[in-house]
Amino acid sequence: MKGDITILADSGIRNGLDVVRMIALGADSVLLGRAYLYALATHGKQGVANLLNLIEKEMKVAMTLTGAKVSVKSAVIRWCRTPKRCRPSMR
């Protein structure tokens, strides 16, 4: 089934370690709705930027500790270059 559909992980994602766990379990992407909204509501645009930086740092630590060889930034760039991703759907 992997490859035929896009698997999105949602619910209970609180930090970068949770993001790495979901991807390791097979998710193609992870949704961060609640954390993003809390950061926006409490600290505005800068709060969201701080949250994303923190999650990236936590992901780097988790990936280093598990021996992953892929950088977070290159993984995101590669994901966005995949057809049908990072573009609005016309359905």
UniProtKB/TrEMBL annotation:
Say which enzyme class the record assigns: oxidoreductase
| UniProt keyword terms in alphabetical order | Oxidoreductase
E.C. code: 1.1.2.3
GO biological process terms, semicolon-separated: aerobic respiration
- Cofactors, names only: FMN
GO annotations of cellular component type: plasma membrane
Q: Which GO terms describe its molecular function?
A: L-lactate dehydrogenase (cytochrome) activity; L-lactate dehydrogenase (NAD+) activity
- FMN hydroxy acid dehydrogenase domain residues are 1-84
Presence of the UniProt keyword Cytoplasm in the record? no
Question: Which SUPFAM superfamilies does the record match to this protein?
Answer: FMN-linked oxidoreductases (SSF51395)
| Source species, domain of life | Bacteria
- What PROSITE patterns does the database record attribute to this sequence? FMN_HYDROXY_ACID_DH_2 (PS51349)
Q: What is this protein called?
A: L-lactate dehydrogenase
What is the name of the gene encoding this protein?
Answer: lldD_3
